[in-house]
Design a protein that fits this description.
About 35% of the residues lie in helices and about 25% in strands. By secondary structure, the chain is α/β, with parallel strands linked by helices. The chain has a seven-stranded parallel beta sheet. The chain has a three-stranded antiparallel beta sheet with strand order 9-10-12.
């Protein structure tokens, strides 16, 4: 995840995403730093799980489409994730579905104790590594690199065996007409299953998702308990959400 990186580390990650064949010498020259400094930056990215080192260079651990999505509405996503984490108490059980916003939630769980977190997202693992108070269950299944997520029958089977207090759900688009949607059937099935296995359903979605519809329907919008979004949500949209008994948290 790009949250918390220095500007030079972000530039370095962008360079590797564009061309993973660049050498340390070439990258240090472009960025105007010594090879020693560049290797230190690379080590920091390795520790965050963002790159894999090779002899003389490195390549991104995530696909370019994930990195591009992480750059979209960064500040809003951070605020949404932080607000979601603020709803988690010590000893809670939660599910977090794959997504560039939802997967930030564990970053803000530092200080919480005995939280059991179930997820299909590989993106949460860098945060889980540095937070020993989190008890993480990664649902099995088929690894979908384009989503950095586990999907498929085995994932659904694993989730069906569990029940949690709260599910933090993501979406590729939501509206009253189309409901909550995803761009793939496999992701939609996982999000729907997580919603079924939680007492409280909280949708995390930046305002750019409002009014959009993905390929696959997950569920009716009215089935969620809370929507956490940013202050870019239009007042008219907020009104119709609240008129349909959906609690809206603007952050």
């Amino acid at each position: 995840m790009t949250v918390g990186l220095s500007q030079r580390q972000k530039s370095l990650l962008d360079m590797l995403a564009e061309d993973a064949s660049r050498s340390v010498a070439e990258m240090s020259k472009v960025l105007g730093v010594s090879a020693v400094t560049l290797r230190s930056d690379l080590s920091g990215l390795v520790e965050r799980g963002l790159i894999v080192r090779t002899h003389g260079g490195a390549f991104p651990a995530f696909r370019s489409n994930i990195l591009e999505r992480q750059k979209h509405m960064v500040e809003a996503k951070e605020r949404i994730a932080k607000a979601a984490a603020g709803l988690v108490a010590d000893g809670d059980t939660i599910m977090v579905c794959a997504g560039t916003t939802t997967s930030l939630v564990p970053r803000y769980l530092l200080g919480k104790t005995d939280v059991k977190l179930v997820t299909n997202s590989v993106l949460v693992l860098p945060f889980a590594r540095v937070n020993p108070a989190l008890h993480v269950t990664l649902a099995g299944g088929e690894y979908r690199a384009t989503e950095e997520a586990m999907v498929g029958p085995d994932t659904l089977h694993d989730l069906a065996q569990l029940h949690v207090k709260t599910a933090f759900l993501g979406t590729d688009g939501f509206s009253l007409a189309s409901g909550i949607t995803a761009n793939t059937v496999e992701i939609a099935e996982v999000v729907k299953k997580m919603a079924e296995k939680a007492s409280t359903k909280i949708l995390l979605a930046d305002s750019s998702k409002c009014g959009k519809a993905g390929f696959a329907r997950i569920m009716e919008l009215e089935q969620i308990d809370v929507l956490i979004t940013d202050n870019g949500l239009a007042e008219a949209d907020r009104r119709w959400l609240e008129e349909n008994q959906i609690k809206v948290m603007i952050v």
